[in-house]
Amino acid sequence: MTPDAASTRGIDPSAILSVDHLTMRFGGLVAVDDVSFSAREREITSIIGPNGAGKTTVFNCLTGFYKPTVGRLALRHAGGFHLLERMEGFRICKDARIARTFQNIRLFGAMTVLENLLVAQHNRLMFASGFSLLGLVGAASYRAAEREAVERARYWLDRVGLTERADWEAGNLPYGDQRRLEIARAMCTDPVLLCLDEPAAGLNPRESAALNELLRFVRDEHRISVLLIEHDMSVVMEISDQIIVLDYGRRIASGPPAQVRADPAVIRAYLGEGDDAGPAAPAEAAP
Predict the structure, then answer these.
(1) How many whole angstroms separate alpha carbon 62 and alpha carbon 85?
(2) Domains in the chain, please, with CATH?
(3) What is the pLDDT of residue 140?
(4) 3-state secondary structure of 278
């Protein structure tokens, strides 16, 4: 959509995502309470907080699973301007170009690793096939699009170290490989904003280090903005450009890692202790 003065009022011009006064109520329960923050282009922004703080609810509002009770969710990039709260869920991925992973792995387990990455490109291939007609007759334009889809899939398989397992059924991969495959599949949709919900959950230290390297590559080489929910503070503190801290649905702190780590409100939220708990505690204690 074309932005007008009213829809862009108050939006940080350097931000790819601006969340303003987001509130989500479920009956009498306020899961997210008047939360505002922005995520800048080509940065990793992490959302952290104790269990039940409202982190995944924020993601669900951004990606169309919930319609927020109140709030403006504005995404702006070179390809356009989008008010996410006004969009149907499938258009948030297709038109606004937001990709997402989930806390629980949601791969197509009976499909091969390669097929999982090809199915992520379904919309692009359907358009190239003229919604099946050009594909049925083997049109050159469709064959070119199909080759491009395979090349993109193989590129991301190489980046996540799964090329040799391309023909495996995704459900038979080790847990850490499945986590990386989910990120590769999300990247095959050509996003401008990648939303990752606890991608380090269940990973060992070696796998977490590999995840850090992958997310830096996505940010630095592909210039993709990343929005991250994570409990693993070794991941959050090492790779984040900015951290947003939620507690009981409200934002209690935000800033670069060093500032957030030393914030007394963050220490209290994580440990339930006074200001004398020490500045390094949140970086070492998972919620």
Answers:
(1) 7
(2) 1-97+227-287 (3.40.50.300), 99-190 (3.40.50.300)
(3) 66
(4) coil
Q: In sequence order, what DSSP letters do the residues of 49-115 get, joined into one string?
A: -STTSSHHHHHHHHTTSS--SEEEEEEEETTEEEEGGGS-HHHHHHTS-EEE--SS----TTSBHHH
Q: How many CB atoms lie within 10 A of CB 104?
A: 8
For residue 197, give Cα distances in angstroms to 224, 228, 229, 264. 16, 6, 5, 26
Instruction: State how far Cα 190 lies from the chain centre.
Output: 13
Q: Which residues in the chain show pLDDT less than 70?
A: 1-11, 125-142, 271-287
Amino acid at residue number 139: A
Give per-residue pLDDT as tens, 148-176.
Answer: 999 999 999 999 999 999 999 999 999 99
Half-sphere exposure of 74 (CA within 13 A, CB side): 24
Give CA–CA dist 24/67, Å, rounded: 8
